[in-house]
Amino acid sequence: MSEKEFDVVVIGGGPAGYVCSLKAAQLGMRVACIEKRASLGGTCLNEGCIPSKALLHSSYAYYSAKKHFDVLGVECSDVRLNLKKMMGNKSRIVMELSQGIEFLFKKNKVTRFTGTGRISVKGDMEKKSVIIDKTETVHAKYIVIATGSEAAELPFVKCDEKNILSSRGALQLDSVPESMIIVGGGAIGLEMASIWSRLGTEVTLIEYADRVAAASDGEVSVYLLKSLIKQGIKFHLSSKITEVKKEKFISATFEKDAKRESISAEKILVAIGRKPHSADIGIELDKNPSGFIKVDKNFQTSIPGIYAIGDVIPGVMLAHKAEEEGVAVAEILAGRTGHVGWIPSVIYTHPEVASVGKTEEELKAIGIKYKASKFPFAANSRAKTTNDTEGFVKMLVDEHDTILGVHIIGPSASSLIAEAVLAMEYGASAEDIARTCHSHPDLNEAMKEAALGAFFKPLHS
User: Fold this and answer.
1) Which one of the listed residues 68, 339, 440, 460 is annotated catalytic?
2) What is the tens place of the pLDDT at every residue in 286-327?
3) I want to staple 185 with a disulfide (CB 3.0 to 4.6 A). Which of 34, 123, 212, 426 is the partner?
4) Average pLDDT over residues 96-125
5) Cβ(193)–Cβ(229) under 8 Å?
6) Does 160 carry a binding-site annotation?
7) Helix 49-67 vs helix 187-198: angle between axes, to the nearest 10 degrees?
């Protein structure tokens, strides 16, 4: 092969693309990855998952020092916020992780190209080309599209990232706004609301659905709303935003119960979801009405030899789902069997929310008989020792005790859900978890107790 010829060319260096590149290289293929950003990691690392989690951690530490440390016997008389330093810590983390991916590319001999890649397929279908910034061309037997997604905007207002923000702008503010309107009560909106509310911003959230975290189990959603209200965040549910005006302050008009209301704030954050970045890739592919590229069970597009993974194809838009698809495609291209199993979802508020499998509402809708078991963190000894007892573990099982879904709201939910994902991946029963020894005192005992309740009775409630 020449320096411009590869087995696989991956377009996009986010979680889907860089993981696919690494796995394909580990499986013996010659791989190139094209990324338009100067830094690898995509939206997740540069302006999404990673910086938001850094700010969520820092803002909660600040909030806890002001609100909760005293009861622990830690008296802080002069807790001050240094936003510049907080943002600097976030940026350092992002830079180090991006450099880590660069190191992994070199270690695994993945060739990196910086620029925008556009696909060209002419004549010989066995040799496809990708043109980089109209100046350089590389060739490959297989092409993997991993171009990700971008923030969706309201049709009547554009984000300027100064006063009308997407999540990108909300993670780069250089001062704490006095007030902020957030449009959207999904994971992004709720996490941004948590960050800025903790730092002193008066946050009002407008959500079109009748509950926040609408994809979550209904009982979890209700609990989360109550907790966030106690933290000082205001909500307008079942509300459709109809107008945004930029004057001295930002004003937002919304319809609720057939009435029109208006509120104003220093900033407004639009967090209504994301849309696939599937335009201008150089070729016409079969797409659905929302712009997602259609693929078959092996992630192949309508053109043989061209694959797509991550946010650019239908399915939940989660970084870990994208990574799993990246691994699966690399294995398929290497002649192996790729597999993507159960995908957990997490909202990193406090309390955290994590889930996998079916919700109660979904089971009722499809008529599956089930049993629900719930164990509160208030009865968990480790939660008691940390004064963090909000929430519960909820387990749903069928008549044969097979786990259908697990939903957690509470401390470390994002980590605890992994046990449930593994159990469901291997078709475990609640009794399997209940008869497995869990460390004590630990939060994971709440999972065991929920499992005990599903097949017999919990011990500690």
Assistant:
1) 440
2) 999 999 999 999 999 999 999 999 999 999 999 999 999 999
3) 212
4) 92
5) no
6) no
7) 40
Biggest CA–CA distance in the chain, Å, is: 74
Residue ranges with strand state E in 271-413 = 274-276, 306-308, 345-347, 352-357, 371-376, 392-397, 403-410
pLDDT digits (tens, 9 = 90+) for 342-361: 999 999 999 999 999 999 99
DSSP codes, 223-268 = HHHHHHHHTT-EEE-SEEEEEEEESSSEEEEEEETTEEEEEEESEE
In this structure, of 65-79, 95-109, 157-171, 340-354, the range with the lowest mean pLDDT score is: 65-79
Q: What is the dihedral of CA 450, 453, 454, 456, to 10 degrees?
A: 150
**Residue 270 Rama label (left phi>0; alpha psi -120 to 50; beta):** beta
* Range 4-150+275-334 has CATH code 3.50.50.60: yes
C-beta of residue 431 within 8 angstroms of C-beta of residue 401 = yes
Characterize 161-186 residue by residue with b for buried, 16 or more Cβ atoms within 10 angstroms of its Cβ, and e for exposed: eeebbbbbbbbebeeebebbbbbbbb
DSSP characters over 97-123: HHHHHHHHHHHTTPEEEES-EEEE--S
Radius of gyration of the chain (CA): 24
Q: What share of the chain is helix, strand, coil (3-state, %, to 5)?
A: 35, 25, 40
The CATH architecture that domain 351-455 belongs to is 2-Layer Sandwich (3.30)
Q: Which two tokens stand for residue 235?
A: 């909500």
Are the beta carbons of 188 and 271 closer than 8 angstroms?
Answer: yes
All structural domains of the chain with their residue ranges: 4-150+275-334, 164-272, 351-455
Q: 185: annotated binding-site residue?
A: yes
Contact between residue 213 and residue 221 where contact means Cβ atoms under 8 Å apart: yes
The span from the CA of 239 to the CA of 232, in Å, is: 19
Centroid of chain to Cα 96:
20
Q: Residue 73 annotated as binding?
A: no
Q: Evaluate whether 105 touches 33 at the Cβ level (below 8 Å).
A: yes
Q: Confirm whether pTM is higher than 0.90.
A: yes
> Which residues partner with 267 through β-bridges?
180
122 labeled part of a ligand binding site? no
Q: What dotted CATH number matches 164-272?
A: 3.50.50.60
Q: Do domains 4-150+275-334 and 164-272 have the same CATH topology?
A: yes
CA 287 to chain centre: 23
Angle, vertex CA 136, rays to CA 135 and CA 137, nearest 5: 135
Cα–Cα distance for residue pair 179/199, rounded to 1 Å: 11
* 357 in a known ligand binding site: no
438 an active-site residue?
no
* Cα distances (angstroms) measured from residue 260 to each of 154, 157, 254: 18, 19, 6
